[in-house]
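Shipment paperwork, digital attachment
Item: protein structure file
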Amino acid sequence: METRSAARVPVIGPGAFVVATVVCGALSACAWHTRGPVGWERPIIVALRHEPPPFAHGLLLLWQPFPLVVSTLGLAWIASRSGRLALALFGSAGCVLAVFVTECVLKPLVGRQHLYQSSAVFPSGHVTAAAAWAMFAWLVVSPRSLLRPALLLVPIAVSWAAIATGVHYPSDVIAGALVGGMIVYGTVTAADRIGTRRPAAVIDLRATDHDRLTAGDRPSPSPATS
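Attachment content:
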């Protein structure tokens, strides 16, 4: 029998989290306290800088903090309007957590510097925000909606723009996409599983009590003493 949690949150197996963690770990090891791109990244950078996406700088501006907050609140409003308050709350929290992990944990930890600037670049904050928002939107929209496949283009386009404009390197955007998507999905899934088990137990208990009482199974009065 399909559970309510499985019906509401699409299942991504634990293997996907393991693969994402391994890939992020390998990329972190390659970028660990380096400055500028490593060998395998250079051909990709050259190719993408010759073919930048339209409005590349505008794409990056869309994932600054203020536009991200506005677009995330918009998704939360859509989810709450359809009665999914938990998804609205924890999807928004997952977006905030993903950006926090990137900016305040991974960037200082890995310590990769841009070649021409003194700023940390791994993972990409732009792509983390875009992937987190896209995952939140993927959970909000209907499984039958044609928007779902299109949402994959959001972090891809932002990654392309970030590399083409020289803001980030390929490993930065790959790690950002994995961190953003998996943190949002993990936050929503964990909250959904915890939140659907406990209320279910309460509902089942109340239903049992109600059925027992309406069936006349009430405590019999104690016999009168003479």
